[in-house]
């Protein structure tokens, strides 16, 4: 468990070519902002998008939100220049699209390093192709910079020829493989976007399912979905109260030389306390970031 888990309940994408969205993001209660140079930006707007992102980051005002810059792939006309640009930007992470191998991560890492990126600049990887999903473990461990995965379920559906069903059964294998690889390597992992902005109920259900799977949060395409994702991925008040209770009860039991106990008839061991402490730390970080859970 990370000692100090960072809130990543809601990660809002915005086109780098949309200055209004970049400006609006300063006042939105999302935990993560993903400024996109890739698929949300038309080919003839790629360079203007880089300039708009640079101007927005120079102005700042994004508070404690985590800033992520999605670049184009190194196999495109813009990828190298995007990475060279990203190396000098005040962002927390660079998000690589369509990552299919550990080697692709290492090539991107080398460009960042050659352009003076600090060691703290993280790499996040879009997991959105069949090859990428099958190479998830190698990708997760490819470089010390790799700190997160983001599921790209739209590209994945295209390559799998599958449908976006309400239960997301067609994605279960891919989501599970990426979750396993991310957790095995101590990475953050965010669920894919929900495309139907008119279906609030379906969106809420997909957030609940993301929580059940174990994702840290959900990637989003519109500000109106932030509140639902934030509520779904935050520990509930009842969960926090329970976490505090079992932590205290377990400490008292330990003082009496016992490793296990029952609280309200439920078995509590050290592993439950570890998860309880993670939830409480997460709730405290959310409070510090936005002032409320
Ligand atoms: C989908 C949109 C194009 C809709 O935009 P718009 O018509 O402007 O929406 P609204 O009029 O309802 O907007 C209301 C206000 O909110 C601001 N807004 C809208 N979207 C964003 C946003 N994403 N970030 C910040 N601010 C936003 C508008 O400017 C309005 O503000 P105001 O002027 O005050 O009224 C648009 O939402 C959009 O572009 N969304 C992001 C699309 C995107 O980034 N797509 C790429 C990422 S998803 C992906 O690639 C998936 C992955 O790779 C995979 O394979 O699965
Ligand atoms: Mg994609």
UniProtKB/TrEMBL annotation:
UniProt entry keywords in alphabetical sequence? Lyase, Magnesium, Metal-binding
Q: Which GO terms describe its molecular function?
A: lyase activity; magnesium ion binding
Protein name as catalogued = CoA ester lyase
Specify whether Metal-binding is a keyword of the entry. yes
What cofactor does its activity depend on? Mg(2+)
Which part of the chain is the HpcH/HpaI aldolase/citrate lyase domain?
Answer: 9-223
Please report which protein family the annotation says this sequence is part of: Belongs to the HpcH/HpaI aldolase family.
Tell me the residue numbers annotated for binding substrate.
Answer: 70, 128
Q: Which organism is it from?
A: Thalassobaculum fulvum
Q: Does the keyword Glycosyltransferase apply?
A: no
Provide the residue positions that the database annotates as binding Mg(2+): 128, 155
The record's section on InterPro entries has:
Aldolase/citrate-lyase_domain, Citrate_lyase_beta/mcl1/mcl2, Pyrv/PenolPyrv_kinase-like_dom, Pyrv_kinase-like_dom_sf
Question: In terms of domain of life, where is this protein from?
Answer: Bacteria
